[in-house]
Automatic annotation (TrEMBL):
Official protein name in the record: GHMP kinase
Keyword hit for rRNA-binding: no
GO molecular function: ATP binding; kinase activity
This protein's record includes keyword Transferase: yes
Residue ranges constituting the GHMP kinase N-terminal domain according to the UniProt record: 61-126
Pfam family, one: GHMP_kinases_N
Alphabetized UniProt keyword annotations: Kinase, Transferase
Stretches that traverse the bilayer: none
Lineage: Bacteria, Bacillati, Bacillota, Clostridia, Eubacteriales
Length: 305
């Protein structure tokens, strides 16, 4: 094989249902959505050097790790992103990029993009989300890197917004006071985790949304979102069940039963009202997603609301 092309898509997240620490070990439960990083990797087995879009340093790092692990001194290629996620909002953009790129490269090499292997690559670069696994997955994203698939995603609609800015995952996880914050909130996070597990096992979105709200409120003392309480009240008034947040990002989202908002017109009106009342810098509506790597049938797709 001289040249080969691989294509892979990895979902992003609407933050995390729960994030905190258990006995001092940080962990999170991702909230995968139908927004993606999609990478096309064209490999050359007889050259060196990589051609990537500007700023995709972490994708370059994972390709170098793959090259090293496979013992291939001559491996190069070009990376194109057919879909991308907003950066710095807490939508797992870095993890999704890294995962999509290494999965596409493995596919090009004729190897299976096994989730455990993808997670191993991502976690060598930075604290990472668990979007490479199917369903909702608990992961110790900083230290031990253990993970547990808890069950399939629960159908949900997310009305997501933020008010600008960006947060770097590495910087957040290295900040002073984070361990103390986790210790202080451990009992509440344990309560949220128990509710989330029940929600996943029982396909009970209300329990998941309550868990998300508990965890999001705990997060406020280290990642303040000034309109949290007014937005939560508005969500509940509109038939929502609670909120979910990006614990190391700027995103905050209302959680709604997907069957209660079936039409595009209803969703459009919801967007118009939240935009008028809260004037966000970013606004979108997502659906929950089953998680895990997708190998697209078509070469070109779009992230759409």
């Amino acid at each position: 094989m001289d040249f080969a092309i691989g294509l892979a898509r990895c979902p992003g997240t609407c933050g995390e249902w729960v994030q905190g620490a258990r006995k001092g070990i940080p962990f999170l439960l991702d909230c995968p959505i139908d927004r993606f990083s999609e990478a096309k990797v064209a490999l050359n087995m007889h050259a060196t050097g990589w051609d990537l879009p500007l700023g995709k340093l972490k994708s370059l790092q994972v390709l170098e790790l793959l090259k090293e692990d496979l013992g291939l001194p001559a491996l190069s290629g070009k990376v194109e992103f057919l879909q991308q996620l907003p950066e710095g909002k807490g939508m797992a953009s870095s993890t999704a990029d890294i995962t999509a790129v290494v999965a596409a490269a493995l596919i090009a090499l004729g190897e299976a993009p096994v989730p455990d292997r993808l997670a191993h690559f991502a976690l060598r670069i930075e604290p990472s989300d668990s979007v490479m696994f199917p369903g909702i997955t608990e992961i110790e994203h900083v230290h031990r890197h253990n993970h547990r698939v808890l069950g399939p995603a629960v159908p949900a609609l997310f009305l997501a917004l933020d008010w600008g800015g960006a947060i770097d995952t590495k910087v957040f996880n290295a900040r002073p006071g984070l361990a103390e914050h986790y210790r202080f909130n451990e009992a509440e996070i344990t309560r949220a985790y128990t509710l989330a597990r029940e929600g996943i096992e029982q396909t009970d979105l209300e329990k998941l949304a309550v868990a998300g709200t508990i965890s999001a409120r705990c997060n406020l003392d280290i990642n303040m979102k000034s309109q949290f309480e007014p937005f939560l009240s508005w969500v509940l008034q509109k038939g929502g069940l609670g909120v979910v947040t990006a614990h190391s990002g700027t995103l905050l989202a209302g959680v709604f039963p997907i069957d209660d908002f079936p039409s595009s017109e209803i969703r459009k009106n919801l967007r118009l009202e939240v935009n008028q009342q809260f004037t966000p810098a970013y606004l979108d509506i997502f659906n929950s997603h089953s998680g895990g790597i997708v190998v697209p049938k078509k070469e070109k797709t779009e992230n759409t609301g």
